[in-house]
Amino acid sequence: MKPANNPRYAVPLVVLHWVMALLIVVAFAVGLKIWSLPLSPLRLKLILSHKSAGLTILLLLALRLLTRAATRVPPLPAHMSAGEQRLAHLGHLALYALMLAVPLSGWAMSSAYGIPVVFFGIAHLPDWVAADPALAENLKWLHRGLNLLLALTVSGHVLFALKHHFLDRDGMLHRMRLGGS
Amino acid sequence: MKLTLAAWLLLAATPLFAAPVDSGASRIDFTLKQMDIPMQGQFKRFSGDIVLDPGKPAQGKADLTIQIAGISLPTSDANAQVQRPEWFNAARYPTARFVTTSIKPLGGNHFQFNGKLTIKGITRDVSAPFVVNRQGALTVADGALAVSRLSFKVGEGDWADTDTVADTVLIKFHVAFPGK
User: Fold this and answer.
1) What one-character-per-residue DSSP string does A117-145 give?
2) Contact call for B74 and A114, based on CB within 8 A
3) Assigned architecture for domain A11-176
4) Which residues contact B24 (CB under 8 A, 6 or more apart)?
5) Which residues fall within 8 angstroms of residue A38, CB to CB, at 6 or more apart?
6) B109 vs A: CB within 8 A
């Protein structure tokens, strides 16, 4: 049992948080680039790597949820009101839900287009949606819509983290630090 | 009496009448590999005549015309793309044509055709085995033909890169025509 005043997340969760943050930013940026490009060899290559990034995020998410369930999550700063704490939990819940929904919607969209999803050229994943061009177009917009929600939620997450660090000065950012004290 | 004999002789000597392909009962699909990932497409519009008496394959003949505008791929982007000059150049070459030059028996209901395939104004010799079966009033020929897309200049410029789209495209045909 860890000391009750341990203010940090378990090391694997801190690592997963930052690795996934980086992957999500890259996958999002590549996604925007794909959206802007006309059909070209470059676009196809970007789509291929974008899919592998999305699947990696899904895998890491599973690992993260298991680790989170098995470790102690540090409490939120005591100065936060019950309402603020509820909002923070809701925000984190939304982040988790979107980290799951965004890659799944992309995978479904690819399946609906009749294009198999391949993980780093090794594993051909099952198509869990039957090929249907009209559904594929709808899923494309769902994927984009969910990404917009994810971008907004992540922005909120970053803004609140910075507010805690620079305005509240409650040291909450240290929860996601590796090493140091 | 003489007339009847002449009529019989004439009938026996007449080549079999070519029958139009039953486009509703026929399909021509193709599989291409995009960065090693198989992708399905279809030639949705084609017409032509086939004559094939499995007992006399040497007299058989097929002549099919495929409408480039009827190519169907997984995405609307891709459908628009294949019509462009780098791919099929549909504006200049709206059709592809396949004509057999000979049909050989391979034993049983197996045969092999030699023929000429014209895509984008380029004609190449092609050859593939196929199987013939009866389906009610129709005769159905099934087979697959591997073609090199680059030999027909399908995919030029950036698209000539075979790491993106492999050179070999497998065309699978299931053509039905009335006949015995």
Assistant:
1) -EETTTEEPP--S---HHHHHHHHHHHHH
2) yes
3) Up-down Bundle (1.20)
4) none
5) B77
6) no
- Kindly determine whether residue B37 and residue A41, on different chains, have CB atoms separated by under 8 Å: no
Q: What is the pairing mode between strands B95-107 and B61-67?
A: antiparallel
Please list the residues that pair with B72 across neighbouring strands: B42
List the beta bridge partners of residue B116: B99, B125
How far A109 CA lies from chain B's nearest CA (Å)?
11
Domain ranges of chain A: 11-176
Report residue B97: phi and psi, to 5°: -135, 145
pTM of the model: 0.82
Mean pLDDT over B50-66 rounds to 92
Taking an 8 Å Cβ-Cβ cutoff, which residues of chain A contact chain B? 38-41, 44-45, 48, 113-116, 118, 121, 124, 131, 133, 136-137
Taking 80 as the threshold, does the pLDDT of residue B15 lie above it?
no
pLDDT tens track, chain A, 181 positions: 344 445 789 999 999 999 999 999 999 999 999 999 999 999 999 999 999 999 999 999 999 999 999 998 888 988 999 999 999 999 999 999 999 999 999 999 999 999 989 888 888 888 888 888 899 999 999 999 999 999 999 999 999 999 999 999 988 888 888 875 5
b/e burial code for range B56-72 (CB count within 10 A of at least 16 → b): ebeebbbbbbbebeebb
Cβ atoms of B35 and A45 within 8 Å: the answer is yes
- Rounded distance between C-alpha atoms, residue A7 and residue A74, angstroms: 5
Taking only the tens place, the pLDDT of each residue in A133-168 is 899 999 999 999 999 999 999 999 999 999 999 999
What pLDDT was estimated at residue A180? 59
Place of tokens 């050859």: B127
For each of the domains in chain B, give its residue range(s) and CATH number, in order of start.
20-178 (2.40.128.110)
What is the DSSP secondary structure assignment for residue A164, as one 8-state letter?
I
Q: Measured between CB atoms, which of B40, B80, B164 is closest to A44?
A: B164
CA torsion, ordered A14, A15, A17, A18, to nearest 10 deg: 120
